[in-house]
Each structure stands twice: as structure tokens, then as C-alpha cells.
């Protein structure tokens, strides 16, 4: 089994401990997780497809998915939820994957990253959460989540706009004028926007940990400045769930 690499600057925040559902200021130590480990829900349900995971780049299966984005720069609010910084999308932006359409809902941040690549933890990860369009009432929500990992580097325009708009108070929301925060500063419209990615089926990384998520984690590592990453960390604290067992899941790469 490969050991988990912890970047030196993350050690102070990764050595504190917490309970499963605590997502602010404390985190369980991100120890090595056995590939066949499972998560037992509080109701006794044994879960075999939890997220996040340690993605091993040498143990992937080739897979190609047709992905098309159609989005408008219509972000209408930024929230300080205490445990994360969240950006809310106005209805209308979509991503189509293999003929199914998912609607943009929100983007939020985790510090440090939740997914590991070959045992490496990155200082930040952004999740863009989408839900399957046209689901009937009563159906369990199907999610498609795009994961973007960040390393320390140049200032990121999108992150800068978010930080300029996030409320100082916890559990507060700030409405923004349409166009004030440009998602196109981060990603441009067109086909195959994710470039190369890892794909697997998993779960939400916050309660209720529903195993109804199609994950697409980009291979490209984005940059944000140390000040930007630290600013988000100061707002939301350490809010990364520890890695889960892969079990018999297939991890695809493109």
C-alpha cells in the first residue's frame, strides 16, 4: 500500500481530531485507509462507495465521457456558511454528460483538499455541485460534482472575486449583481472543458453522505495565492473529510 504524503505546511491542521460530522476548525487525522474499508452510517447502513478517496494514477481504467458545458455568468450570491464558503448559481447553467443534463447549483471550497492524488493532499479543493435535471419528486437526488484541486501559486481571479464578496458574519448571505463574479474567469465555455480527469461513483462528503454522486476530478491543478487560500481557510476552518475506502469501484481516467 502506498503511504499518504502530507505537505509540510498542512501538518499543524491535519493533526487535530474530530467526530465524523464536524467540519469546522477540527478534522480527523487523515491516516492511511485500507482499500476495502467501509463507512457505517449512524442508522447501521454499511456504505461501500463513500467519498473522498485517494486516487492512484497508476491504477486507473481508460474511460471517455461526452461532456458539454452550457453556462451563463449568473452567480447571484455568496454565502459564509461557517463551515464553507459557497457561491450560488442562478438557474440556467447546465452540464451535459453522456446525454443526461445536470443543473449548476453551487460551488464551495474545502481546505485542505478532500481528494488525494497518489497520496498527496493539496491546500484547497473547489466542488461545483450539479443536480440531475427533471427528477421526479420523492426520488433521491442524483448529483454530478466537479472537483478542482488548487496549489499555491499565482492569484486566482475567480477566487479573488469570491473573497471580495463573502460576508464577514457566519451564516450570512450576500447578493451580488449578475456579472460581478465571473465563473468564466475560472473556466471557459465549450466542449471538453475538464480536459483530463478522474471519474468514479461516490458520495457526498458531508451529511447525509448519500452515495448518489458522479465525481469528475480534474487532473489539472489550479493555482491560488497563499493569501487567498489562507483567507478561505480562516473563514471556513479545516473542513475536509478523511479519505474513504475504494473497495471494488472502478476509477476511470481520460
TrEMBL record:
<keyword id="KW-0479">Metal-binding</keyword>
<dbReference type="GO" id="GO:0008270">
    <property type="term" value="F:zinc ion binding"/>
</dbReference>
<dbReference type="InterPro" id="IPR036398">
    <property type="entry name" value="CA_dom_sf"/>
</dbReference>
<keyword id="KW-0862">Zinc</keyword>
<dbReference type="InterPro" id="IPR018338">
    <property type="entry name" value="Carbonic_anhydrase_a-class_CS"/>
</dbReference>
<keyword id="KW-0456">Lyase</keyword>
<dbReference type="InterPro" id="IPR041891">
    <property type="entry name" value="Alpha_CA_prokaryot-like"/>
</dbReference>
<dbReference type="Pfam" id="PF00194">
    <property type="entry name" value="Carb_anhydrase"/>
</dbReference>
<protein>
    <recommendedName>
        <fullName>Carbonic anhydrase</fullName>
        <ecNumber>4.2.1.1</ecNumber>
    </recommendedName>
</protein>
<dbReference type="GO" id="GO:0004089">
    <property type="term" value="F:carbonate dehydratase activity"/>
</dbReference>
<comment type="function">
    <text>Reversible hydration of carbon dioxide.</text>
</comment>
<feature type="domain" description="Alpha-carbonic anhydrase">
    <location>
        <begin position="25"/>
        <end position="254"/>
    </location>
</feature>
<comment type="similarity">
    <text>Belongs to the alpha-carbonic anhydrase family.</text>
</comment>
<dbReference type="InterPro" id="IPR023561">
    <property type="entry name" value="Carbonic_anhydrase_a-class"/>
</dbReference>
<dbReference type="InterPro" id="IPR001148">
    <property type="entry name" value="CA_dom"/>
</dbReference>
